[in-house]
Amino acid sequence: MHFVQKFYHILLCFAVLLLLPAHSTAEPPAYQTIRIGVANDMRPGPANDAIRLMASYNSSYLAEIAKITHWQYEYYRGSAADCLQRLRDGQLDLIAPVSGAAFPPGKYLFSNGHSCAAILGLYTDENDSQITADRGATLDGATIGVLNDNDLKNRLHFFAKANGWNVSIRTYPSSQELTAGLHRGEVQLIACTVFNLTGHERWITFVDTIPQQYMTDAAHASLMEQLNQAILSIEMTNPSFETRLKREYLDPSIYKMARYSEHQQAFIRTSPTVRVVFPGTFSSLIQQSKEFGNIYGISPDILTLLINTTGITFQPVITDSVESAGQMLRDGRAEAAFAVYVNDPKLQMMQFSNNIFWMSFTPIFRRTQAESARPESIVVPTCYAGLREFFQRLNPQAKVVEINNPEECLYAVEQGLYDCTYLPQPYLSKNKNVLLHFQLKIADPATVSVPLCLMFRADAPEMLCHTVNTALLGLPQNQLTQIIQHNSTPDVSFVYLLSQHPLALTVGLLLSFIILVTAVFLIYRHRLEQEKNHALTLRELELQQALDAVEILQEDRDNYKRNAETDHLTGCLNKAAMTMQCQQILDSLPENWTAAFFIIDLDHFKEANDTYGHQHGDDILIEFAAMLRGLLPPRTHIGRFGGDEFTLLLIEEDTGTSEAYARRIAEIILEQTRGLIVCGAPGNVTASIGIAIIPAGGKRDLATIFRQADRALYNVKETCRDNYELYQH
User: PANTHER family in the record, alphabetically (predicted)?
Assistant: First the structure.
């Protein structure tokens, strides 16, 4: 029995081991590389900018698809025919961007949805040089071929009508028949994407951006299924992705393609000034300078941008109310006004442009009121026609009224007359005056974007509205953003400082007051002490005069002493001063220091003095003394004993080289004396030098070393001159 139990235990352990997952050393599968064919699109001029934006849109969408499918992908760029042939040969897996309407039904597989886009353009035969989009007469009576797709036909029909072209449209079942019809002369132009071309067409103009698809053959059905599932996943789980991508790339590409038709260009050349009326001033939106009368703000800046874009002159006009602004439109004193379109029956006959920009309006409540509560009464400022109706439709349960002044709107809510007010975000950013209303709070999360357009009076030329709409297509969005940001910059005023920095402003004012009081007190003290200080000043003047007199006496004494010790000709110490100072130095010289005493006599000095005169002799002595001061160490004492005889005293700490040092100094003096230049000419003198050394610990007696140096000098004079001798005991 015990054996059977052990056997069962062994079987159980073996079964558990079999059930455990085996450790695999295999590498994970590599990502699948997808080869995608893209038709070359290399058009000259401004088309390149739009083409690059379109390519960025397609590549960004494909990158999002690859995140889901784990594809690695590579592009192949060639002609449409080349890409199709490579797909049939298995060298490509997908082709994009294409449209299913360009191919016979059932021949290829196409992706669901529209995960890529292309530019729809007008083309003519490459040999046709007459047709141009800038001259409508060249298109009158022309036939334009297009694929049999209702969306394409509708876009083309609208485009032709907007340009005032008298053309007819013919449809074709495939791109091959479309281009063949062009080259056979059945149609004069075709509207298609670059993938439908054969390479023998000439580009005329943009029409629009259109959604496109990916295409493959039946051999890649599983690949197309992966692609469709990824596109569906993006649409279901990331619905805002495509919207953001369009705003980033497709909208700017449309701006790049915007162009004025021939009729619009003619209208611009003859258009009179368009007067745009405003119902009063409104901070940050429209203001007028009291000093210069110029009008500025977001709305006038946008009009200036339209002037630069269209060439039409827009003139802002300010009136005092909505009623008077409407009256000016009705009686022809103004042609347009900024407005919010709300399908108002009273304005049914007016013409409205496309939306120019979206203005953020932020709600403001009392602090005691919950932001989630639906307001029953709302007050809005009178700044744009249709604004009240817009908020009325946004809040059908509430009563919405208008007040001219935004400050009055804040006051009305603060007093409980209304539940909330909506004010433009640029106004709030610029003024910051809500912070002065302590009972109010701003509800930023509930901000509402209000679309603004230009409203033209009913009898204004339709071409004016059409031209403005074309201009809006090409209006740089970054410049609109800059205009709003610029006019949202806070005013640096007292109210702004108090609202933004109340504590800092209070401290600053308090410090300023303290400084002012302190300044007044100091001035008062100064006046009280002025008389006392005047007496002290007089005494200081007397004392200063006495000190000046003492200083003069001291200076005279120093000059007298200096004159008494200095040789007036050379500036060296005279004999008496040299003797006294040398003995003092020797008496205080440490035992481990040595001294060298030189006596220098100039050779041939008497001949030079007698030949060239005493002045020349004086010049020799002056130059020789200057030469000594320039080459000797700072501790050297130099004296003139009389005539052409000079003395030197050198001291240094004993290092065993004092004798060699003295010889080196003597040799330098001899060399410099031979080359002495006096008044620009050679001095023609040499030197004879006698040297006496006082070794460390030796007798410090000036008379002794003087005799020794004099003896050495005598020997030099008797022998050869222009030399030196070191006295030897």
Answer: DIGUANYLATE CYCLASE DGCM-RELATED, REGULATORY COMPONENTS OF SENSORY TRANSDUCTION SYSTEM
Cβ–Cβ < 8 Å for 472, 464:
no
Host H or E run for residue 212: strand 201-216
Buried b (16+ CB within 10 A) or exposed e, 516-532: eeeeeeeeeeeeeeeee
In the numeric block, the tokens 């649409």 are attached to 235
Task: Go through 679-718 and write b for each residue having 16 or more CB atoms within 10 A of its CB, e for each that does not.
Answer: eeeebbbbbbbbbbbbebeeebebeebbebbbebbeebee
Strands 448-456 and 189-192 turn out to be unpaired
How many other C-beta atoms can be found within 10 angstroms of the C-beta atom of residue 472?
20
Q: What global pTM score does this model have?
A: 0.58
Q: Are the beta carbons of 268 and 310 closer than 8 angstroms?
A: yes
Q: Give the whole-angstrom CA distance, residue 202 versus residue 180.
A: 14
Residue 315 domain flag: yes
State the residue range of the domain holding 513: 501-557
- Position 556 confidence tier, pLDDT thresholds 50, 70, 90: low
Beta carbons within 10 angstroms of residue 323's beta carbon: 11
| Distance (Å, whole) CA 336 – CA 352 | 9
Examine residue 9 and state whether it is found in any structural domain, yes or no.
no
d(CA 510, CA 517): 11
For residue 598, what is the domain's CATH number?
A: 3.30.70.270
Confidence of residue 26 (pLDDT cuts 50, 70, 90): very low
Q: Band the pLDDT of 178: cuts 50, 70, 90.
A: very high
Residue in the structure block whose two tokens are 């006596």 = 599
Question: In this structure, are residues 207 and 191 in contact, taking their beta carbons and an 8 Å threshold?
Answer: yes
Confidence of residue 480 (pLDDT cuts 50, 70, 90): confident
